[in-house]
Amino acid sequence: MSLxxxxxxxxxxxxxxxxxxxxxxxxxxxxxxxxxxxxxxxxAMVDSEYGKTLTAEDIKGVNTVEELYNLINSK
Length: 75
Description:
This protein is an all-alpha fold. It is built from four helices and no strands. It has helices spanning about 5-10, 35-50, 55-60, 65-75. The longest helix has 15 residues, at about 35-50. The protein is globular, with a radius of gyration of 11 Å. The mean pLDDT is about 95.
């Protein structure tokens, strides 16, 4: 998976946030729409698209979309 593909898939999970505003350096937890539901959507997307398991604790340890991408690749 490429970083840009991941950013696009991550951004597609948001309903009210303009996907064009999400990039590798976006601090996703600062997005107004981010919350426990978006975390679950992200965990499910990573599982279905990449066959990797993320936990809420994993997500708490990263700040940007790129850091999340790197975490997934390290699993």
